[in-house]
Amino acid sequence: MQPFNVRILGCGSALPTLKHFASSQLVELRGKMFMVDCGEGTQIQVRRSRVHFNKISAIFITHLHGDHCFGLIGLISTLGMLGRTAPLHIYAPDGLEDILGRQLKFFCEGLDYQVYFHGVDTSVAGVVYEDKGVVVRSVPLNHRIACCGYVFCEKPTLPHIRRDMIDYYGIPECYRNNIKNGDDWTTPEGEVIPNCRLTEPADPPRSYAYCSDTKYMPGLYKHLVNVDMLYHEATYCSDNGDRAEKYYHSTARQAATVARDANVKKLILGHFSARYNDETTLLEEARAVFPNTFLANEMAVFNV
What we know:
Layout: E1 4-10, E2 24-29, E3 32-38, H1 42-49, E4 56-60, H2 66-69, H3 72-81, E5 88-93, H4 96-107, E6 115-120, E7 126-130, E8 134-140, E9 148-154, E10 160-161, H5 163-169, H6 176-180, E11 185-186, E12 192-193, E13 199-200, E14 207-211, E15 229-233, H7 241-247, H8 252-262, E16 266-270, H9 280-287, E17 293-295, E18 301-303
């Protein structure tokens, strides 16, 4: 099974602190590296993670608040200085296209690579990226400005060859892809060996959902049913529920409720308000509703 990891680069909210960086993550899936959000300080965190900058093939921005995108133009510039030649694809709400275009013209003329912008309609759920092994879907969120989450899904793979049976029947290498695709095998004596004896089921496809920032949405879980891991903002505890409502954020309890209703396997809390020196209170509140909950932290790596 190929790695499917999420590395937290930043999990703080808008007000900078000495404890947390602004929002950003790296998602490693099927040999590709995707970035989700790119707040201020993201480049430093990429350095600390020891991930090569040029491994990043696409960046997904949830919304145009600075703690989620102020680091983008700096990262693009750095990629140019590092000699990048591969295209960089950016998926973001439509409003970023004009802003980014002007920044590129002013700060980044003469790049040796192309930056391709893909506008995302944050009001509807839909596929925004697809390749032979991965699908990324957008999920509408309810924030003060246009905002969406993203769900990263593996595509189903072919069954595994049973090496012992292949060797036993002496099946040539050239026929093995046919067997992976469902063919039976007929021996020289005319015996038909059914495919189910020659293969084992494929690994179940995995999925990861990133939801930040959003007011609690009772119907959000319908877009996240059975995902393996969910990152959901938990800016406040319930005793600050009025602030969550006012600023279109969620409490830890609300994040856990989404996870429970969606039947996810694991919940990661993040986007912590600067008022919390110790996020244990957020964790305890969420675990009362959804026990398999964990706190994000810079440089933490979660396996999906």
